[in-house]
Amino acid sequence: MSDTLTPEAAEEFRAKCAAFISEHAFDRDRTDDPRSEKSMAQTKKFQAALAEAGLAGINYDPEFGGAGLTREHDKIWREEFGKSGMMGIDLVISHGMCLPVLNEFGTDEQKKAYMPKNITGEEVWCQMFSEPGAGSDVASLQTKAVLDGEEWVINGQKVWTTLAHLCDYGILIARTDPEQVKHAGLSMFIVDMHDPSVEVRAIHQIDGGQHFNEVFFTDTRIPKDNLVGPIHDGWRLATAMLMYERVAIGSGGAGGVSHQSADKLISAAQKNGKISDPNIRQELMKMYCQETAKSLVSMRTRAELKAGKAPGPGGSLGKLHGAIIAEMYRNLSLEIIGAEAVAWDPAQDGGDRWTMGALNTFQSGIAGGTNEIQRNIIGDRVLGLPREPSVDKGVPFSQLKVGTQESA
Fold it and tell me: Which helix (H) or strand (E) segment is 146 a member of?
């Protein structure tokens, strides 16, 4: 199938996408939903209907459950879906990170076994990288995987695992050879989250949410064939997954220029009369420009994906830009809304939405890699600046003092 659509075919497909969204769009139910069970149920229902309409997994191979359409189809879908708000956020990890990694690095057997139900939303996936002693420095992770006959035995702990309690499978990075340097000796695995030896504990957040989790593995046994990619090559695969993550977070469903946050604040300022304040107007214009610029960067990143390129370090630009915009939104929203943003009438439906929105912006500078890490990546791999000195270069991981591990 040609990757270029005729104008008529493109408009016909766009109309199909718009009609589907119009019929099936929903507002996420966040009422008394700290563990996101309600919103996930809504999302899975939407995704099932999407698959039924032939619009799920648009440019994935039909052999693995995809629609087998082109990247141009995918671009059009993203443009239309991007207008609908936050409907797909509960599957951003499952579809934006786990699915493309399975597609790129999984064996044909793994793809046939796992991709179809991932695409339809019947099964949801999570990502398990971070640990208490390995956050921004993921390569310092200590979770171990030891081969025992035809099974891998996993022991360790992961943290900040989004929606792990609602997931069926997870992508795990574990250490398979501690005698190699820390970026080597890592491998990627598929883990059944329903295994009794996998314990998921909620992390309680200040805003009342509990969608992050700690995950504990105690002699968890998985089939030997659940290894993704070559053994000890996990860092390369993890880096690719992090790039997909940054693209998913930084560009989302953007297919065109979008400035939804600025539009929301402009509307609020118009309603309460603060739009006439010249300082407010200037800050709103800055935010509008920032979101427009971010959209253009995202469009370039998506164009590279359309051309068949795997996401590169440029994905960090969109991720960092999004975090900067989130900080701008937090400060400006509180200034525009005023006292009602921190003290509202409990009887008012959604009266706390501005406070919740402001609190949620803090995670933007952490999720997918901190702002500092993004700046390092951009400086090193985009701008070609000298790398920061490394004190552990060439040292076997077993000799490093990281996390709870003490060097001999």
Answer: strand 144-148
Cα 59 from chain centre: 19
Domains and CATH numbers, the chain: 7-87 (no CATH), 127-234 (2.40.110.10), 254-369 (no CATH)
pLDDT, tens only, 281-306: 999 999 999 999 888 887 777 676 66
How many angstroms separate the Cα of 138 from the Cα of each of 300, 334, 369, 373? Answer: 28, 34, 10, 11
Note the pLDDT tens digit of each residue in 116-132: 999 999 999 999 999 99
Q: Give CA–CA dist 81/47, Å, rounded.
A: 12
Q: Which of 79, 131, 245, 283 is catalytic?
A: 245
- Model confidence at 259, pLDDT cuts 50, 70, 90, reads confident
Give dist(CA 82, CA 364) in Å, integer: 19
* Angle at which helices 353-360 and 315-337 cross, to 10°: 150
Q: Which residue has the tokens 């040292």?
A: 395
Tell me how many degrees the CA angle 137-315-132 measures, rounded to the nearest 5: 20
CA distance 141 to 144: 9
Look up residue 226 and give its amino acid: N
pLDDT digits (tens, 9 = 90+) for 94-122: 999 999 999 999 999 999 999 999 999 99
Question: CB neighbours of 59 closer than 8 A, spacing ≥ 6?
Answer: 66, 67, 68, 69, 70, 71, 73, 74
Residues 141, 129: Cα–Cα separation, whole Å: 8
Span 33-49, average pLDDT: 95
324-328: long-range contacts, CB 8 A cutoff, minimum separation 24: 324/290, 324/371, 325/261, 325/287, 325/290, 325/291, 325/294, 326/361, 326/364, 326/365, 327/361, 327/364, 327/365, 328/283, 328/286, 328/287, 328/290
What confidence score (pLDDT) does residue 408 get? 46
CB–CB of 134/248 below 8 Å?
A: no
Q: Is 199 a catalytic residue?
A: no
DSSP, residue by residue, 324-336: HHHHHHHHHHHHH
Report the phi/psi class of residue 62: left, alpha or beta, with left for phi > 0 and alpha for psi in -120 to 50: alpha
